[in-house]
Design brief:
- The protein has a single domain, classed as Thrombin, subunit H (Beta Barrel).
- A six-stranded antiparallel β-barrel has the order 6-7-8-11-10-9.
- It has five helices and 23 strands.
- It is mainly beta.
Amino acid sequence: MKRSLLPAGGALLAVGLMAAGLSGTAQAAGDIDTDTMANSTREAASIVSFWAASNGAALRAATSYTWDAADVKKVIQKGGYSPDGSPGMVAPTTTTGSGRSQNINLPKTVGKVFFVDASGKYRWCTATSVQSNHRNLVATAGHCAYDTAGNSDVMGKWVFVPGYYEGKAPHGIYVGKQAFTHYDFSNYEDYDRDYAFVTVYNGVAFDGVKQVGKKDYDAFSGLKWSRGGKHHLLVSRDAGRLGDNVGAQGLAWNQPSGKPVRAFGYPYAAHPDGDRPYSGVTPKTCYGPTTGKKVGASWLKIDEHVGLKCAVTPGYDGGPWLKAYSNAKRLGYVNGVTSTFADQDGNDRIDWITSPYFDGETAEVYNAAKNRWSGKIVGPKGELR
């Protein structure tokens, strides 16, 4: 259904970084739309340099991506769901990858996506690694990949940092290569299709500072700086594929509603009453059954969301709703992503979150993304290509 929708709203490095333009040519095939985020390894290297410079200063400066809290209202439940086909599931995968997160209760697959919005602000949402043939896929909300508020193309300088904690990237930084969404979201901002699957390049990790001569310094294409006649490089390392390092959640669609899920995310913004109970540093989880009826939000022209009782705030956007989640394995099946926030009891505090219902059209978008290879950013000598 196509319709208009109102937008939701170690060492100090002194180095000049090239700005990277991220807009790409959109391509559509049926219900699937795809846009380029970083079209070349050169562009991807510039993006990872931007976020890694000065010990991740830009990462620490980012704030949650959200709309005006005054837009948070009550949602309405109406009617039951009618799946558009047979139920389907793709199994999750574990990993033997190394690296620890400071957030010990967080699945290794979950982290933050960072980007620059149309206003030039550094922002974040929540996302997760999801199963794909090349172990290089991220699932998040559509509005965390496309800049609906700025009425522009994909978000700028988009990266995923699983296990993110206070400027640290324990499993590497993964630059977005290509975003896949439903055609109705990217063209009509239809929040009933507010989900995105993004392919990412191999991760980039940094192995410390190396002092070199002028010749090697001039030839190096990564992060570097000179001081007092001495030349230093920040040596990069190919961290490998996302799914090999952190594993990948499964995916489920056309599932019955009213079943329990566990949702994860990094809440940060204030409630509508101005109270700010979350720091955005520590991820939070909610657990419970989704609504058994369709959720509608006239103020966002939403007809077919599912709801979950969860008193978190924006920053949680894009976080996965995991069906059949195993606390022991920390794996489950992505059966939704946080899209909007609601105040059901009218006390100016968020008490619900909503997600698009994952159906066969969601699976079509996922299937288009899961087979795309991305590639490496780091060269054989630790240089950014």
